[in-house]
Specification:
By secondary structure, this protein is an alpha/beta fold. 40% of the residues lie in helices and 18% in strands. It has helices at 28-31, 71-84, 98-110, 124-130, 168-185, 194-211, 226-235, 242-259, 265-278, 291-299, 326-336, and strands at 5-9, 16-21, 39-43, 57-61, 91-96, 117-121, 135-140, 143-150, 155-159, 308-312, 319-324. The strands form three sheets. The chain has a seven-stranded mixed β-sheet. Pfam families: DHQ_synthase, DHQS_C.
Amino acid sequence: MTGLRHLTVPLDDRSYEVVVGPGAASYLGSVLPASARRAAIVTQDSIPVEVHTDLPYERFVIGEGEQHKSLETIGELCRGFARMGLTRNDVVIGVGGGMVTDVAGFAAASYHRGVPVVHVSTTLLGMVDAAIGGKTGVNLPEGKNLVGAFWQPSGVICDLDALESLPDRERRCGLGEMAKYHFLTGDDLLALDLTDRVARCVEIKAEVVASDEREGGRRAILNYGHTLAHALEISTEHRLAHGEAVAIGLIFAAHLANVMGRIPVERVDEHFAVVGEEYGLATDIPAGLDADTLVSLMHRDKKALDGLTFVLDGPNGVEVVAGVDEAPVREALDRMLP
């Protein structure tokens, strides 16, 4: 099949293939573990993609919305796996967006202390970010993605045909993550066709993951814009979707870096130009939120090992900055709060 890109996430004996392009779902069999005898397919009713496998399988449908990205859902899935007799010689296949692959991956990592998982990503956000790299997890009321595991998939399918029916809001979510990669690399991703654009995002993430699989250092740069983004998601009860929040978080991170003297105002303007103009995303914090709530939520961020921690632009590029005082954070928020 022409027009497909075959990429590798290089992790030594755990390396795996990512297939990107229209019709990529037909390659599902090539990325399934050779030992798999049965499959548990985890999906949602709204997912417009049906996967085809020669393996006997059972289908598990999880709920819609972030409230179902929970430990309760993991428990329900694992009980279902137990009822079907799933073993380590079988495979979990997550079919859906970032929420589905996060949940399916964590359930696979937890059940029998680790069952192989393959992701069939159906959203732009999932293809360029969530399905790649092995970070899985669910939310708690106290914060987003606070419980999870690193569990690399055996393969990932990014079938661009699935994007044809993608709602505009889901498209914006993917663009929010894609804009992040612009600042990590300087690449003009919008100059590429869709297959090459998604493939380039996969290449960037794969290179970073290979250098720091368990987020001990460099991998945290993939969370550029995410510290405020996660706080915005929680404080709006997820009325603000992840990619939308990341777009706003990128602008906030630029303001904070400027307040701290790391970048000039011209670089802040570049963030506005890329996020707001080129990608067409909203850049304002929604009305009704306050600095105290947002700062409190940012203190709970999983990167906050040494006080408030952010991924910030600077003279050496985007990097993790720990121990940030609240004063510049509040000044940056004041620039954005209505």
